[in-house]
């Protein structure tokens, strides 16, 4: 007899549950991708207060996509799995791009944003600068970041 999976209808809740269930693998995957993009070891991971106060590159209970902490420490979180993450903040075109973007490219986009925010100390500046980061992110991530920057510039007019 097949067992029906209890999959939440809300994409953010589904992303959070998935992230908790697969946190160890996502930790390894996040650390590997941060290293591949050239993030220095002392800037990989941050204190995850909501999950045992461990230093982690992946925070399963946070839902923003990623974060930057003191010391320019970068982490990813369950938001990278949420197809609706950007929908409340951006126009339909950018939100739809994010929804269709595979995980690796979402991760690259978040890492580039957090990296640039760590350099400037300013979230809004990072939104604009992330698309031109020197990090070797994927072209699809760069396109996503350009769409986000364009949407933010358009909305601020």
Any overview of this molecule?
The chain has 157 residues and is mainly alpha-helical. It is built from six helices and five strands. The strands form two sheets. A three-stranded mixed β-sheet has the order 3-5-4. The protein has a two-stranded antiparallel sheet with strand order 1-2. The protein starts with 10 loop residues before the first helix and ends with a helix. The model has no long low-confidence stretch (mean pLDDT 89).
Write the layout of secondary structure elements.
Layout: H1 11-21, H2 23-36, E1 46-48, E2 54-56, E3 58-59, E4 66-69, E5 73-77, H3 92-100, H4 103-120, H5 123-129, H6 139-155
Parallel strand pairs: 3-5
Antiparallel strand pairs: 1-2, 4-5
Helix pairs in contact: 3-6, 4-5, 4-6
How far apart the termini lie comes to: 57 Å
Low-confidence stretches: none
How helix-rich are the residues, as a percent range?
40-55%
Q: Using the CA coordinates, give the radius of gyration.
A: 15 Å
Question: What is the total tally of β strands?
Answer: 5
Helix- and strand-based class? mainly alpha
Q: Quickly count the helices.
A: 6
Oligomer: single chain
User: Strand portion, in percent?
Assistant: 5-15%
What distinguishing features does this structure have?
globular, mainly alpha, two-stranded antiparallel sheet, 157 residues, 48% helix, 3-stranded mixed beta sheet, 6 helices
């Amino acid at each position: 007899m097949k067992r029906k999976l209890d999959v939440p209808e809300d994409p953010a809740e589904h992303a959070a549950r998935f992230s908790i269930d697969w946190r160890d693998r996502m930790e390894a995957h996040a650390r590997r991708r941060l290293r591949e993009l050239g993030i220095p070891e002392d800037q990989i991971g941050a204190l995850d207060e909501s999950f045992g106060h461990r230093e982690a590159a992946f925070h399963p209970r946070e839902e923003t996509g990623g974060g930057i902490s003191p010391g320019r420490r970068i982490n990813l979180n369950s938001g990278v799995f949420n197809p609706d993450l950007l929908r409340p903040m951006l126009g339909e075109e950018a939100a739809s791009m994010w929804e269709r973007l595979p995980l690796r490219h979402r991760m690259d986009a978040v890492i580039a944003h957090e990296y640039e925010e760590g350099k400037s100390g300013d979230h809004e500046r990072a939104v604009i600068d992330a698309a031109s980061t020197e990090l070797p992110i994927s072209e699809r991530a760069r396109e996503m970041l350009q769409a986000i920057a364009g949407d933010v510039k358009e909305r601020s007019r």
